[in-house]
Design a protein that fits this description.
With about 325 residues, this protein is α+β, with helices and mostly antiparallel strands. Helix content is about 30%, strand content about 30%. The protein has helices at about 5-25, 35-80, 90-95, 100-105, 110-125, 295; strands at about 125-130, 145, 155, 160-165, 175, 185-190, 195-200, 205, 210, 215-220, 225-235, 240-245, 265-270, 270-275, 280-285, 300, 305-315, 325.
Length: about 325
């Protein structure tokens, strides 16, 4: 296949990637970044292999022919006693060896895209906190890192676990695929593991009938809502963190939806009591009265786990936010 055809084909492929990203950005389609990245690895990897096996040897052969022909011509002219014009043969050789644009934008990017894919899929993935459901632990605008292998190694896109590691523990801050809409990633705190009876009654958390220890702290001022909230130090699973309560919000859970295993939950004016089924987890936001979590839409299946959140690596509005959290 000649260079003109490859240039046209590559232009179409790159336009498809740009079109997908633009449609996703404009909300015309529901994007999947993991799938997009996987496709980018496959496409650029195919170009990289073709470059190493076919295109690069072709360019090198053409460059060698050019040098050989130039040397032969120079020798023939010398035998004829003719002074040859000066030719920058090295510049011409380098031009032949240079990658065309369509390889530079595909094969040339493959190593970088592959590294990003491996890091994001199996090691660490960055996320941005979009809402205040985890205040005061995490604030809107926090850029966090998520450990992708802490709960086991999973295949990208399909999210199937292929290697087990730690099991989620009470108190962990977990990123997971939102059960009603798995294309969305959510972040909450694990409060119940399989077999636990989790109760949230009159704004007090109970695990297996035992109240979770909490102590009152000075009120917390939320600059986003410009309101004060009751703040508590809570201890769960050996982790110490802070939670918020809004005294003006009722204890009962309004607006619940149907979800799998909802028969394991009992709702009342005091709150909710749920028994966590096998292979599922119960998660809540630290901003207890401003968090849509397992109280409203149900349990998180093990298959929906993405990773354990552990570090704020940047907040452009407040650099003091950088650091580890529990």
């Amino acid at each position: 296949m000649n260079e003109q055809n490859m240039s046209a084909i590559t232009g179409v492929v790159l336009a498809a990637f740009v079109g997908y990203g633009l449609a996703w950005y404009l909300g015309a389609i529901e994007g999947n970044f993991a799938l997009l990245l996987l496709l980018a690895v496959v496409v650029t990897g195919a170009y990289w292999v073709a470059e190493k096996v076919y295109f690069q040897p072709q360019r090198r052969a053409a460059a060698e022919r050019l040098v050989a022909e130039h040397t032969q011509r120079q020798a023939e002219l010398a035998r004829m006693g003719v002074q040859a014009d000066a030719v920058d043969i090295e510049a011409a050789r380098q031009k032949l060896l240079m990658q065309p644009w369509w390889l530079d934008w595909t094969a040339g990017l493959f190593p970088v895209i592959l590294v990003v894919f491996v890091l994001r899929s199996f090691l660490f993935e960055p996320f941005k906190i979009p809402s205040g459901s985890m205040i005061p632990t995490l604030h809107v605008g926090d850029l966090i890192l998520v450990n992708k292998f802490h709960y086991g190694v999973r295949l990208p896109v399909v999210n199937t676990k292929i290697l087990a590691n730690h099991e989620p523990q009470r108190g962990d801050v977990m990123v997971f695929r939102y059960p009603p809409q798995p294309s969305l990633d959510y972040i909450k705190r694990v409060v119940g593991v399989p077999g636990d009876e989790v109760a949230y009654l009159n704004k007090q958390l109970f695990i297996n009938g035992e109240p979770v220890a909490k102590e009152p702290l000075p009120e917390f001022y939320d600059s986003g809502s410009m309101r004060y909230a009751q703040q508590f130090a809570e201890t769960l699973g050996g982790r110490h963190y802070r939670t918020l309560n809004d005294p003006d919000r009722p204890a009962f859970i309004p607006g619940t939806v149907d979800f799998p295993h909802k028969d394991q939950c009992r709702y009342s004016v005091e709150g909710v009591v749920c028994t966590v089924p096998a292979g599922h987890y119960f998660l809540m936001g630290d901003n207890r009265d401003n968090s849509l979590d397992s109280r409203f839409w149900g349990f998180v299946p093990e298959a929906n786990i993405v990773g354990k959140a552990f570090f704020v690596w940047m907040n452009f509005g407040d650099l003091s936010r950088i650091g580890r959290f529990e």
